[in-house]
């Protein structure tokens, strides 16, 4: 998914020059050393603060805006007292990976090692870590760090912390650039690591760590996890949408898929269990479904108007937007006003919500529908993802025998 906080990785560097509450002593040191100002701030940080990055890792990275993934060796930090080291088994391919690979948002720090849908096995445990042991099955999603001090961090909503650092293309507290899951192992702060329930497979669970949590939290925030019998709409039937359908059905709701593609109806109804299907370009079908839905989650990142979707909501209904088109979305006032409707956003989920989602998935046997790919086929998978030619998520077999790592 698209992560609005990605850009903060860079914004943070400049804004924290002026703030007094930043707790990285290395960066505080740099702030008082004006003579290093001729270098870029990033290279200062890397040079000054990463002496403990001694572990050599093989992975796949994109080196420049050509956007092609190639084998790449890089360094990770030693396992610190709050860290766990994870031998990566699988990593899902998220559309965000493509955006960063191609520098679509102008904030990519090459080389970028993508991947924030990571599952693996713990091989080292820091001395402050109590909740994990060697051999545990764990996952890492979009978050690498947050400030731990703000109201959001203190109330298990750290995904809304203003200082969050992402699993890749972020800047960790030691000043190093973060590298993601397209790699053999990673070192992660245990506060952003979740446990994978025993009955969930490691490959088909990987995409739950971004795609899954992205559509789970809107259900949770709108009290739809434990209150069955509502009428729920899902706009778009891709990686996120198919999981939203699974959640909606597992939680006992009547689920309507809203899609531009009539040919997806059979799949939606017969394989995923959707109750209804609306072709969003068909005015008659839209009119017939006016004011019928209590809640809609919109998973489409292509530019589209929210007006016709809002009309499907009953009075006081809610539309949750979880994907971001490059252009502003069209939001007409009349359907909002005449239906007293709300539009709200949602940004993945916190670590505790991600654990809650995995436990719910364990209970209902929900996993992502995946196509497993070898590391050598990452570029091919990216090309197919670009064409929406995937059912429904690619997952890279990092630890498999055929892996080129
Ligand atoms: Zn993602
Ligand atoms: Zn915080």
Automatic annotation (TrEMBL):
Residues annotated as domain Alcohol dehydrogenase-like C-terminal: 239-362
The UniProt record lists the keyword Metal-binding: yes
Cofactor: Zn(2+)
Xref: SUPFAM superfamilies: GroES-like, NAD(P)-binding Rossmann-fold domains
Molecular function as annotated in GO: oxidoreductase activity, acting on the CH-OH group of donors, NAD or NADP as acceptor; zinc ion binding
GO biological process: one example: lignin biosynthetic process
InterPro entries registered for this protein in UniProt: ADH-like_C, ADH-like_N, ADH_Zn_CS, CAD-like, GroES-like_sf, NAD(P)-bd_dom_sf
Entry-linked CDD domains: CAD1
Keyword entries, A-Z: Metal-binding, Oxidoreductase, Zinc
UniProt cross-references to Gene3D superfamilies, sorted A to Z: Medium-chain alcohol dehydrogenases, catalytic domain, NAD(P)-binding Rossmann-like Domain
Domain of life: Eukaryota
UniProt cross-references to PROSITE patterns, sorted A to Z: ADH_ZINC
Ranges of residues in domain Alcohol dehydrogenase-like N-terminal: 82-198
Family: Belongs to the zinc-containing alcohol dehydrogenase family.
Protein name: Enoyl reductase (ER) domain-containing protein
